[in-house]
From TrEMBL:
Superkingdom of origin: Bacteria
Family to which the UniProt record says this protein belongs: Belongs to the FldB/FldC dehydratase alpha/beta subunit family.
UniProt keyword list: Iron, Iron-sulfur, Metal-binding
The protein's name in its UniProt record: 2-hydroxyacyl-CoA dehydratase
Cofactors named for this entry: [4Fe-4S] cluster
Organism listed in the record: Pseudoramibacter porci
GO MF assignments: hydro-lyase activity; iron-sulfur cluster binding
Length: 417
């Protein structure tokens, strides 16, 4: 048993009777991991990625140590508004991934199922629910989620936060972009801001939001240029790092730290050697623990995961003159919102822009939207002529990822490429 699993076992042993001690172990583990990554990190990993890794670890630690200034969110929450009140974000996907990193996701998932949560619920949600109910995650100042794409979010937030009287906001995002639908979302944002003003005893600062959106625009411009550069440049990465990019592109987007990260990868990529291997465009979450995938992609010179659709779900410039309208448009126009045809068109455009040689679509256990969309997308995108592989598994729980099947199918796919 390696040290990570042994550490996970200690936490699991403490969890039933002493969740406070288990939580202390988690925080200590995050501190040690951040120290190790900062001082002993793999030099083959580009420095901006290593720094992003530390940033995400420190961000996670902060939400656990200072729950009074933390908000629970989903990936699509307009975090720009929470930043206005200096609140840090903890998303369900992020928490689930960290639990998996500690190898304690199985305990949390089993705990949720033992309480009566359906086994067919997405594992990120089950792990989150199990960890909250076990007392591993302290209650935040507030919680906010959107109805975008995920059928589990609303219920999980009602169950974990609202039922415990944490101020909870559910943003309802319409499927169609019309003048009325945008106005409907803006109205919800204004109501939510008023609640946050009451909760934080301070006024919302519109100019501060403009600065945030300005940095966000610059970040996505730099990211787009980075993606363009990686059509020909070798930029080593790992499955885990691709998930960490979600932290920058969603949970801290608009912050100076996120802008710094995107500018640095842009500059760094320009000086990298030419890449002559195969580029993969990834759809949905990445199972960063999966042995065959790690072997194929982590720091590989033959196959490069260039981008994931989740990191590029909205990347049009935001209108600084109308910041709330811009945020409403960002949510309504997200590629995961609305009929599948919209998403297929967006994926087709992204595949073309990234110049990918192959597409891997990951069917994460319990994710209804992906289970419903994967085959239809494969069929619709066959006109691109780019090989498309669907892998079934679980983003965080190895028990739901058939190792042998993934290995066989992946190897055949890469050989074909
Ligand atoms: S994987 Fe699917 S079900 Fe799970 S959180 Fe993401 S969108 Fe929701």
């Amino acid at each position: 048993m390696d040290i990570v699993h042994r550490y996970g076992e200690w936490i699991k042993n403490k969890l039933p009777d002493n969740p406070k001690a288990a939580s202390r172990y988690i925080r200590l583990g995050l501190r040690l991991e951040s120290f190790a990554k900062r001082h002993l990190g793999d030099k083959n990993v580009p420095l901006p990625y290593r720094d992003l890794n530390c940033l995400a670890l420190d961000g996670m630690l902060h939400t656990l140590e200072h729950p009074e200034s933390a908000a629970w969110t989903n990936l699509f929450t307009p975090v720009e508004i929470l930043q206005n009140f200096d609140l840090t974000c903890l998303s369900i996907e992020m928490m689930g991934s960290f639990l998996s990193g500690f190898t304690i996701e199985d305990w949390c998932i089993d705990q949720a199922e033992a309480e009566g949560i359906a086994p067919t619920l997405c594992s990120y949600h089950k792990a989150f629910i199990g960890a909250v109910d076990a007392g591993l995650i302290p209650m935040p100042k507030c919680a906010v989620t959107t109805s975008i794409v995920c059928d589990a979010n609303l219920q999980t937030f009602r169950y974990t936060a609202d039922s415990r009287h944490i101020p909870t906001t559910l943003l309802d995002i319409p499927n169609e972009k019309t003048k009325d639908s945008l106005a409907y979302v803006v109205k919800q944002l204004k109501d939510w801001i008023a609640q946050l003003e009451d909760l934080n005893h301070r006024a919302f600062d519109l100019d501060k939001l403009r600065d945030t959106l300005d940095r966000e625009n610059q970040s996505f411009e730099a990211y787009r240029h980075f993606i363009e550069l990686t059509r020909t440049r070798y930029y080593p990465s790992t499955l885990t790092l691709q998930m960490f990019v979600l932290y920058a592109s969603h949970l801290i987007i608009g912050s100076p730290e996120a802008l710094d990260f995107f500018k640095r990868i842009e500059t760094d990529a320009a000086s990298r050697p030419v890449f002559s291997g195969k580029r993969i465009f990834w759809l949905h979450v990445l199972p960063f623990y999966e042995p065959a995938l790690k072997h194929a992609f982590n720091l590989s010179k033959k196959y490069q995961i260039q981008a994931t659709d989740m990191n590029l779900d909205y990347n049009l410039p935001l209108d600084l003159d109308h910041p709330l309208e811009a945020l409403a448009e960002k949510m309504v126009d997200n590629i995961f919102v609305g009929p599948l045809d919209r998403r297929i068109d967006a994926e087709r455009r992204l595949i073309r822009e990234t110049g990918a040689d192959g597409v891997i679509s990951f069917n994460h256990w319990g994710c209804k939207q992906m289970a419903g969309a994967a085959n239809l997308m494969k069929k619709a995108l066959s006109d691109t002529g780019i090989p498309y592989l669907i892998l079934d598994g679980d983003g965080i729980d190895p028990r739901n990822s058939p190792e042998g099947q993934i290995k066989t199918r992946l190897e055949a796919f890469l050989e074909m490429l």
